[in-house]
Amino acid sequence: MKTLWQHCHVASMAQGVYSIIEDAAILTSGERIEWIGPRQSLPATADARVVELNGAWVTPGLIDCHTHTVFGGNRSGEFEQRLQGVSYADIAAQGGGIASTVRATRATTEEQLYASARQRLQALLRDGVTTVEIKSGYGLDLASERKLLRVIRRLGAELPVTVRGTCLAAHAMPPEFAGRADDYIEHICTEMLPALAAEGLVDAVDAFCEYLAFSPAQVERVFIKARELGLPVKLHAEQLSSLHGSSLAARYQALSADHLEFMTEEDAIAMAAAGTVAVLLPGAFYFLRETQLPPMDALRKHGVKIAIATDLNPGTSPGLSLRLMMNMACTLFRMTPEEALAGVTLHAARALGLGDSHGSLEVGKVADFIAWDIERPADLSYWLGGDLPKRVIRHGLETHF
Ligand code: DI6
Ligand code: FE
């Protein structure tokens, strides 16, 4: 079925740049875009159903390329402790932090995990998200990681959103392996990843490279196994200290390196050469009250593509609005609204390996777009979250939820 969407303006992101078409039309055929351009150049389209968009601004559907949406419990108690001056690292050292969410997640049924994650994901969808990446990483044993990845697959099957599932087994040390990090890495490589990949539950492999998590040498063993299994890699790198995880990620052609506050110019050069996307997470920066800014000048100078994501997780970024993150990227990291929009569309798609089909509005790409009732595209970064009036078109069909 063909549909002609007209009387709109489009921020298309075509050909990898921020580009505007005023008084545009979009012709969709099934789930793909068949034609897009200025309305007066539209070829004859007698057989198409016509939808009036009443002057809306159309952008690609938003893509949240880094979330930990599925978890048990929450950590608002730790939030209060941190407000009293206890640091994230101190809380982790006392058995709180990620370990406390692992305990809660293990004790929660698959059904309960699905129900709570579904609510959080629906908040993201109401904000204009049509594609999301969700990581495991709060299970840390085979059965529990499987439970999380199955919930992630089910969310993609039951909600109107494209979901990519990432295995983050190398997120933290499970209590069973206390003091034996190398043995846990071995267990991930020989037992967990091969089994979970064989079950079709894994689209990418991630790890947490940090002094309070895993070393670059340990991460590299996980990357080697991922490569053997034919899975792309990503990395949490340079969030709290500089271990050059982002350069390691680049050596393995990682889709992205994420956080990056402590990265160096050399890391940026390596990432640019490898085409590894920098995923910045202003929600975590804000929530942990960090002061070390990601090196925006070096990223821009070397042409590293910059994506923005929520990092939605119970410990460092309980963020339920990707547009709020766009605002924070502008306010805290001094990105422009154009860069922020490219960061949640074009570059976020690349960070998920979906650059050929998603992230911009071009002929042949998937027809996922939002028609926003706003004055200017910058309004998306201007409002601090909230439910902006919009129509969501996914796979060529208007979606209500
Ligand atoms: N970095 C983060 O910001 C999240 N994971 C990670 O590796 C935090 C996860 C948590 O604190 O629960
Ligand atoms: Fe994260």
Question: What is the secondary structure topology, with strand pairs?
Answer:
Layout: E1 2-11, E2 20-29, E3 32-38, E4 49-60, E5 62-64, H1 76-83, H2 88-93, H3 98-106, H4 110-126, E6 129-135, H5 142-158, E7 162-170, H6 181-198, E8 204-209, H7 216-228, E9 234-237, H8 245-251, E10 256-259, H9 265-274, E11 277-280, H10 282-287, H11 296-301, E12 306-308, H12 322-333, H13 337-343, H14 346-351, E13 369-372, H15 379-382, E14 390-394, E15 397-399
Parallel strand pairs: 1-4, 5-6, 6-7, 7-8, 8-9, 9-10, 10-11, 11-12
Antiparallel strand pairs: 1-2, 2-3, 4-13, 13-14, 14-15
Helix pairs in contact: 4-5, 5-6, 6-7, 8-9, 12-13
Residues 66, 68, 236, 311, 313 line the site of fe (iii) ion.
CATH class of the largest domain: Alpha Beta
Approximate helicity band: 25-40%
Could you tell me the CATH topology label of the largest domain: TIM Barrel
What is the succession of H and E elements?
Answer: EEEEEHHHHEHEHEHEHEHEHHEHHHEHEE
Strand order of the largest sheet: 5-6-7-8-9-10-11-12
Biggest sheet features: 8 strands, parallel
Strand content: 15-25%
| Gyration radius, in Å | 21 Å
Number of strand elements? 15
Domain module tally = 2
Quick overview:
By secondary structure, this protein is an alpha/beta fold. It has two domains: 2-60 and 360-399, Urease, subunit C, domain 1 (Roll), CATH 2.30.40.10; 62-351, TIM Barrel (Alpha-Beta Barrel), CATH 3.20.20.
